[in-house]
Amino acid sequence: xxxxxxxxxxxxxxxxxxxxxxxxxxxxxxxxxxxxxxxxxxxxxxxxxxxxxx
Length: 54
What we know:
Layout: E1 9-14, E2 21-25, E3 36-41, E4 46-53
Antiparallel strand pairs: 1-2, 1-4, 3-4
């Protein structure tokens, strides 16, 4: 099965510096810029910003 170029797998890394990451997909046609989501960081036990790393 070929990897889809429209829906690439991306890693979201915590901006708090803990090194925790989430793995998800995104649609490049709808969101061409880097993705930033507010998600839960279990090492800090609170919600922080997670930014897409390339």
